[in-house]
Amino acid sequence: MRILVANVNTTQSMTDAIAESARAVASPGTEIVGITPRFGADSCEGNFESYLAAIAVMDAITSYPEPFDAVIQAGYGEHGREGLQELLEVPVVDITEAAASTAMYLGHKYSVVTTLDRTVPLIEDRLKLAGLDARCASVRASGLGVLELESDPERAVEAIVAQSLEAVERDHAEVICLGCGGMAELEEKVRAATGVPIVDGVRSAVTIAEGLVRMGLSTSKVRTYAQPREKKVIGWPFRGGAAG
């Protein structure tokens, strides 16, 4: 089984960290391939960058030259998962939804701890669109930019722990979701400090994607995610046709 894990930004070191985290939970025989878009922002922290990332990820995935069995979209918030579902025949798993759905098996309510405050509405909207908001106690911002998660990991852990404790004590969350692909591999430190289950979206998405592939399940094509209609599209950035 081959799973493509698509970073939504262009920072290669973050792609490498995300892929390594995915491999830590992948089953024997599952190949994890990290994908970095060829264009876009070096971090996604707002609507413009997220919409740009949606096009960039579709470009990167559809131009991947080898067969693959599933795709993980490793960005929190809105990054065009639905577009990939139209284009591909294989399962597409978004880490925002993967983390939240996993958290609901572990406690009554969950909270998401993310990066900057401006990203909170994007995550709230994605959870609402996915029907996962009813058991979300809160979405909290650590105040750190995405790239600061790499450049200052100690400060990142401190900020995430502080907001996680607030979510548990004030919002009555029983599970914490790490709200950024760049937070991969931080869960053990946050769990030790909070005493509650910590869910990483990338690792959750790997287990979900593997399960869908093993069950022979993929996106329904009868209506919402049917293949795009044949028509002339000017200036389309794709380098190749849809794979999978």
UniProtKB/TrEMBL annotation:
Residue stretches in coiled coil: none
GO molecular function annotation: amino-acid racemase activity; hydantoin racemase activity
Catalyzed chemical reaction(s): D-5-benzylhydantoin = L-5-benzylhydantoin; a D-5-monosubstituted hydantoin = a L-5-monosubstituted hydantoin
EC number(s) on file: 5.1.99.5
Gene3D superfamilies: 3.40.50.12500
Pfam families: Asp_Glu_race
Residue spans crossing the bilayer: none
UniProt similarity note: Belongs to the HyuE racemase family.
Record's protein name: Hydantoin racemase
The organism of origin for this protein: Gordonia neofelifaecis NRRL B-59395
